[in-house]
């Protein structure tokens, strides 16, 4: 009779929990419908305010339609396991009654098997129930493990992931086995993939240039150029360049242009030249003499320009070559000349017009880059695409390149997991800590409870077989 009372109490508890579960399921279903309605009306702001962690917590603290269906399956399996327990209890009672009535030896075997089946079923019921709640509501130690140890389980899970999944050896071994370098190379070697990467890079570049404020970039560029110019002496470099230009005759076209423009200017402004000469003459000279002198000076200047323009071997050209050669040498070796150039450089860089010119260069460069990034046939995008195809082909075929890429990726991944391992694992522990214990327990039970009920069924069957075996052996040894 004690067994009957135990079974009845346990079944009443399960029936009560089933009834409560059905009520809870109904309430959860209503809440789910309300959440879905509220989400369809205004899901944007609330989701953005909550963030990923809030989304995970909401997912664990609410029941979906799939969870409710799983919960129904758990209830059906609980009824099946409880029914099997009730069945072996009835068999035990009947077998005992039959044994007292002199039914024969078989009744003892059946009673032993049924009794052991009840013990196994009750023990496994206690073990399964203790995971999620206190059996029969009694404050038995080490029960209701999931709701009471939820946070500790989250910490243990985070430590387990950190030690076994985020260790340097595991990360390196996993990445090395994947062979990212060769796979990435084969993927990039496909023209459509290279086009896709080029388009994504162009979009990212346009976005970055759009986000940057021109004033900030201009200030940085201007400061960088000015600081670089101040830190490096320019006279020796200019001297070497000038020496090379003169040696190669590169300055002659500039001389030709200047002489030609001077000749043309003299032809158009003859009166201005003669007026300038006459204006500088002494006041005591006759005006006709000043006029004749002005005409003479003008003709000589015009003749000089014509001869220098038309005669590559004109002495003035040779004198200019020697002057430029000497000046190039002074720029490189003469201390005085170099100091004067540096002072001139400082004065030029200090002018507001020059700083504005340096700063405005960024606007032109940005416009050029954005235009090139938007044009699919621009030289920039074509070169990037060709470079990606070439890189992909090399990565797919060259083991050395593959090794370098794999090494870079392994190093980057190891740095991330070793540097931010605590932050990564804290995501697990903090997320689990934010779950509601009651809802988490119900959700876990809904997902794995059906399989756990098979433990009760198996315990009943295995217990019955074990009891029958023990009773048989005992009878055999006793006989």
From TrEMBL:
Superkingdom of origin organism: Bacteria
Region of interest called Disordered, as start-end residue ranges on this chain: 1-26
Entry GO CC: plasma membrane
Membrane in keyword set: yes
Protein name: Uncharacterized protein
Signal peptide positions on this chain: none
Compositionally biased region (Basic and acidic residues): 1-12
Membrane-spanning parts: 79-99, 105-132
Source organism: Streptomyces lincolnensis
